[in-house]
Prior knowledge:
heterodimer, A: mainly beta, 6-stranded mixed beta sheet, 5-stranded antiparallel beta sheet, 11 strands, 0% helix, globular, B: mainly beta, 4-stranded antiparallel beta sheet
Amino acid sequence: GEDVEQSLFLSVxxxxxxxxxxxxxxxxxxxxxxxxxxxxxxLQLLTYIFSNMDMKQDQRLTVLLNKKDKHLSLRIADTxxxxxxxxxxAEKIYGGSQGNLIFGKGTKLSVKx
Amino acid sequence: DAEITQSPRHKITETGxxxxxxxxxxxxxxxxxxxxxxxxxxxxxxxxxxxxxxTNKGEVSDGYSVxxxxxxxxxxxxxxxxxxxxxxxxxxxxxxxxxxELFFGEGSRLTVL
Lengths: 113, 113
């Protein structure tokens, strides 16, 4: 079945770059997403990439997509303490029992001053 | 501004009681979803709806039910609460078209004693 895998924890120093990695299994995915969850809050869409793109850049965020390896990454440049949160990778699938999106378990990013 | 709200935000109940968590969105979205979030499991889909009178089971639907009588609301009912249903519950909605961004509520923390 469909699955999205990501590492559970990442710790970086303020000012460094953070790279959060994700692998997915469904080759028919059309969109891949990064959601951010701050403590005590719901998830918010950070960015997404269409499957026919290799890269998307949005200010400090860079998303890289390797369709051959089914690998998605999120790079946060100049990481700040306010970036501390849980980051979820997700893919969009159609039909099945999963509804709209399949989420990974989330990567908790800790930023040390 | 359009929004999605959940209530109650926190609830403590006893095993065997019926509990209903409310979800109301003013985005006029057709698609609505209920997830539960647990440590080590990430987000798991409980039920979802693609429109009025449409409901579908997700990955972890046992012990839960939903009904969709209008566009704005998708209440989640736990028929007979169990300790295994202690969790944080998130409601989300989307248009279902294009990238289909999910908009999440703030979550409802349920404790079953």
